[in-house]
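example protein:
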Amino acid sequence: MKTTNVINCAIATFIALLPFQADAQRDLMHMEGEDPEVAVFEECVGMTLKDCKKHILDHVGLHAADFSEAISEFEVLPVRASGTASYYLVGLRTDLTETNVVGVLGDGMVFYPFEWCTTDGCVEAGPWDCDVGTPLTVDDCCAMIKNDAAFKDKPDVNGNEIGCFPDFPIGSPSKPRNLKRVCIHVDTNDIVVHPPRNE
């Protein structure tokens, strides 16, 4: 059964539509085409962090044979908000080599989740296409964003100029895969906002 799940990008980053396939045996969702060892805990979205962790541990305890490695770690990742210190930086999702920008959707598009506000008013920032036939490097993509006429030499109301940071994907050298770990994205109230995954 195919459904569509909207994943709102706020780590830098992303809104993605991904098809899911229900796994009735474990009451979990698996992404179609993904590694069957990667479990997506769809039902955690909207739960508190504490309740989600308990839910995951209960499921894993009941179905331990379905996991090649026991889940023993939780990585809690706060979703970026406009008030965070790094709000003015655009996240550049790279490929697994950490060299070229592929975007969270894999199409080279880079998104910024906030408006850019100067003394002249606020404007939408992005998206930018960092794939010009071939994916741009992190430096080239960032240079293109900084040279966008809407932002070049236009600091925001706090005096910050738009900048970038590399956002390395799971499976890259900076973020190696770890099936014992479940990544959980939460908002400022510790509510789960994206389906947690062991990856």
User: Anything to note?
Assistant: The first helix runs from residue 49 to 62. DSSP finds two helices and twelve strands in the chain. Helices lie at 49-62, 138-146. Confidence is low (pLDDT under 50) at residues 1-26, 28-33.
